[in-house]
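Please, why this fold?
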Amino acid sequence: MRNRPPYKGTKRRLVLAFDVGTTYSGVSYAVLDPGQVPEIKGVTRFPAQEQSGGDSKIPTVVIYDQNGAVKAIGAEAAELEDNMEGKIEDNGWTKASWFKLKMAPSAPGNSSTIRSIPWLPAGKTIIDVFSDFLRYLYDCTQSYVQDTHLPNGSALWESVKNDIQYVLSHPNGWEGAQQVQMRHAAVVAGLIPDTNKGQARIRFVTEGEASLHFCILSGLPTDAIAKGEGIIIIDAGGGTIDLSAYGRRPDVRSNTYQEIAAAECHLYGSVFVTQQARIHLQTLLKQSRFAEDVDHISQCFDKNTKLRFKNDKEPQYIRFGTSQDKDLNCNIKSGQLRLSGKDVAGFFEPSINCITTAIAQQRKNTSQAISSVFLVGGFAANNWLFSRLRDVLTPLGVNLCRPDSHLNKAVADGAISFYIDHAVTCRVSKNTYGVVQQIPYNLNDPEHVERLPFAFIDASGETCLPNSFSVLLPKDIQVAENKTFFKTFYHDEKNMEAFKDTIRSDIICYRGESENPKWNDEEIDMFTVHGTIIVETSKIKHLIQRMEGIHGQVFYRMKYDIIISFGLTEMSAQFSWSESRQKKKYGLLYFALILDIHLNNLKIPGYNLV
């Protein structure tokens, strides 16, 4: 970033950004020295590809032996595959590829796509594979820093290794559950200790926001922003297409940005172009002797034909065999399979249609004019994708640009800039968040009358209805990072002994289209547990008050607030209560995927909204 100020910290610090992509991964870093202007650097040498240039990334592949031990990772795994000539399985070894997408959250339209992702090796969880890969990136980075930083890289590493700060990037569509998985994988990998202090050393950034920072580093948004317009950043990667819209914040410093539409994430990255090709090849070769070679031919398409494709008017070739391989009925001659340019262009169309539709939606969702779109990511380097998008967008008055630099390092470099430069201070909520509670029955409300069969008498003697959804954070609103949202709740019980050892409150995410969702037993599939707050009752038991109910009966009440903060890239939530005229907070947001309980079955009786 231009005019970056010197680092104001008092001690040296190392920041590592791990961009674990679907097909390729990379690492960027910065050494923060007090009084020095930070520089963003990349790890440009990895085992088995020491001669790579400054855009060095490694294949996101892990090979395990028959005992489940890591045999090779990254470029070493790719080299092993080439040398073994397809005999990996004969040795009882297994390969994990595209494993990042196994973390993808469930969403409408994702199911069939996720089913096409290769299985994980037997006995391995996504945490196992992800942690093995993170550890490898860490080891490679350690070697690189020690070998390249003069005069003494080893001393540099020793001085910072116990307090390394990590930035982990992820697709726009990933949320708390996926962040918890990634943080847990970092613990298993040994990058951080499993303590609050250790886990605080990990920060998350969406690939869209990291890509914005990369574009700022490249000077791209300057003209559009100067005209008061917004911009759209498209991070086109191996697995996902991430779209984010930003504009400059008018009320703060000039180099600060805000999201102006909810970020989007679609499973239409470059690997799904290869999937389309594979489906075509299965049909084409079904009756030929090459039917069993579809996987190999698809890989050859992925590594060569797809990358250089730029013209749908000329035939395209997949070189996969020797001069003896021939089948004229399938357009195979001398080990090459010929495809029409239009067929190959068709493999790209689902991704292109997805991007253009999403751009139109982003422009529609913001009142700020958008005439500039910036394309980054490994898939962005494909000339056919770029030219087709430009053909579609130019008649709409939208300029399409891509940085004149290593596009596949955009996320890793941008993640470091996110940590150092902090350019985005306001984000847009993608979903509606709240809690499920009981509410007093209102005989003048037709909806309440309709739900009368579900009514019950609570501890205070009042008639109540269950399953009311209380919104804490609405969808599609801009949220500054220092903004919090809260509501006050009561927890009532008939006697003191009924208060459990812990109080749990689910934070519920509503993903439907309603602007005012009221009941969580309607549109059931649209409500999911985002996470839960757990607080030990013993810490606030002295707040329980003895109360008198509407019929004179005694009951007991605990009053507290639930607070959530959304403005940063990771949601946080807490209980809060008043004590001696001071606000106290307790509890962390735990996500359902990690808890060893089925959160959907949790029942929290006695909640009344003030």
User: Anything to note?
Assistant: The mean pLDDT is 87.
